[in-house]
C-alpha cells in the first residue's frame, strides 16, 4: 500500500509547477512566472487547479505543497507552556539549529545525516516520486525547541514503513515534550497508512533506548562495531514499533 497518495497530473504544466514548488519549499507565483515558460493566464489557471485538487496550498502569499498534517496543540507541564504543531517552511533555521545541537550531544548519527540534507536542500516538506518527509516541531514562544521527523521512501515494498528521528533541547527535557512529539508523529503515520516506524541509534545512548522502550518500541537487531565514535567502535541499535 502506498502510504501517501502520489500526485496525478492532468497537464505537463501542472506537473512542472508542482515539482518546482516541491523542490523549493515555498514559492511566490511571480517566481513561477519568471522561471517557468508558462503563459501567465495559463499559469494562474493551472495553480488554481492544483489548489482545487489539493496538491498546493497558499499561505502568506506563498505556494507550498499541501500535506494534511493536522493542527497545533498547546500543553502546559510544570509551568512550561509549549506548542506541538506541523512545521512550516519558516521553521527551517530553527529545526536545523536544534537538530545539530541534539545530534552532536548524543552522537545521533542518523539525525546528523537528516540535518545535513535539510540544510542543503533548504526545504522542510518533501513529497515526490522518490520520497516523502514531514516535520512536527515543539515550540516555546514560537521558537523551535524540539522536532519529530518522518521519512518514507516511495517504493512499493517499503511504502508501509517510515523512519523517525526526534529530539528535544536539553534545557526543555522532563516536560513530556518528547512524548507528545512522538505521539503526534506516530498518530500521523498510522492515520496515513504506515504500519511500522523505525530508527537506529548508537547503543551507547541508553537514555534514548529506554525512552523508546517506554513507548512500546522494541530492539530488532544490534550491529556490532557499526559506528566509530572518538576512535571507539560502537554498536548500532535498530529499533521499531508496529502501529
Topology:
Elements: H1 12-24, H2 29-35, H3 40-52, E1 56-59, E2 62-65, E3 73-77, E4 80-86, H4 92-106, H5 109-121, E5 126-127, E6 131-140, E7 143-153, E8 161-168, H6 177-191, E9 196-202, H7 206-214, E10 218-229, E11 232-242
Parallel strand pairs: 8-9
Antiparallel strand pairs: 1-2, 3-4, 4-6, 5-6, 6-7, 7-8, 9-11, 10-11
Helix pairs in contact: 1-3, 4-5
Task: Please describe the structure with a list of short key phrases separated by commas or semicolons.
globular, Aminopeptidase, alpha+beta, 9-stranded mixed sheet, about 240 residues
Question: How would you portray this structure in words?
Answer:
This protein is globular. The chain contains seven helices and eleven strands. The protein is α+β, with helices and mostly antiparallel strands and 243 residues long. The mean pLDDT is 92. 35% of the residues lie in helices and 33% in strands. Strands 3, 4, 5, 6, 7, 8, 9, 10 and 11 form a nine-stranded mixed beta sheet that branches. The protein has helices at residues 12-24, 29-35, 40-52, 92-106, 109-121, 177-191, 206-214, and strands at 56-59, 62-65, 73-77, 80-86, 126-127, 131-140, 143-153, 161-168, 196-202, 218-229, 232-242.
Amino acid at each position: 500500500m502506498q502510504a501517501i497518495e502520489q500526485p496525478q497530473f492532468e497537464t505537463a504544466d501542472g506537473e512542472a509547477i508542482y515539482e518546482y514548488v516541491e523542490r523549493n519549499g515555498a514559492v511566490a507565483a511571480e517566481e513561477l512566472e519568471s522561471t517557468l515558460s508558462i503563459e501567465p493566464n495559463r499559469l494562474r489557471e493551472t495553480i488554481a487547479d492544483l489548489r482545487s485538487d489539493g496538491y498546493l496550498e497558499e499561505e502568506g502569499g506563498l505556494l507550498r505543497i499541501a500535506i494534511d498534517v493536522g493542527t497545533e496543540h498547546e500543553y502546559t507541564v510544570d509551568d512550561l507552556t509549549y506548542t506541538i504543531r506541523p512545521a512550516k517552511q519558516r521553521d527551517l533555521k530553527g529545526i536545523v539549529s536544534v537538530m545539530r545541537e541534539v545530534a552532536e550531544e548524543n552522537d545521533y548519527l542518523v539525525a546528523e545525516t537528516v540535518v545535513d540534507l535539510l540544510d542543503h536542500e533548504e526545504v522542510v516538506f518533501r513529497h515526490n516520486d522518490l520520497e516523502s518527509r514531514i516535520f512536527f516541531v515543539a515550540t516555546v514562544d514560537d521558537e523551535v525547541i524540539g522536532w519529530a521527523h518522518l521519512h518514507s521512501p516511495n517504493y512499493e515494498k517499503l511504502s508501509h514503513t517510515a523512519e523517525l528521528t526526534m529530539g528535544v533541547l536539553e534545557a526543555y527535557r522532563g516536560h513530556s515534550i518528547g512524548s507528545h512529539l512522538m505521539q503526534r508523529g506516530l498518530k500521523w503515520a498510522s492515520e496515513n497508512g504506515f504500519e511500522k516506524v523505525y530508527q537506529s541509534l548508537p547503543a551507547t545512548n541508553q537514555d534514548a533506548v529506554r525512552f523508546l522502550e517506554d513507548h512500546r518500541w522494541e530492539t530488532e537487531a544490534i550491529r556490532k562495531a557499526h559506528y566509530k565514535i572518538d576512535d571507539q567502535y560502537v554498536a548500532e541499535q535498530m529499533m521499531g514499533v508496529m502501529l
